[in-house]
Amino acid sequence: MGFTVLGTNTDAATYYGNGVYCNKQKCWVDWNKASKEIGKIIVNGWVQHGPWAPR
C-alpha cells in the first residue's frame, strides 16, 4: 500500500477517512486507524450526551 493523503490518490489507493481505503479492485479498512476514530466518536458522544447533559 502506498502513502495516501486525505482525498488524494497515490499508488492507486484513495483514503476516505476513518481508516477506509479503496483502489480500483477493492476497499479495505486499516483497523488500527479505524479503532482510534471509533473510540473518539464514542468518547465524544458520551461526553456531550451523558447522564449530565440537559434534556
UniProtKB/TrEMBL annotation:
It holds the Pfam family Bacteriocin_II. One of its GO terms (biological process) is killing of cells of another organism. GO terms for cellular component: extracellular region. InterPro entries: Bacteriocin_IIa (IPR002633), Bacteriocin_IIa_CS (IPR023384), Bacteriocin_IIa_dom_sf (IPR023388). It comes from the Bacteria. Keywords: Antibiotic, Antimicrobial, Bacteriocin, Secreted, Signal. It is found in: Secreted. The keyword Signal applies. The keyword Secreted applies. Belongs to the bacteriocin class IIA/YGNGV family. This is Bacteriocin.
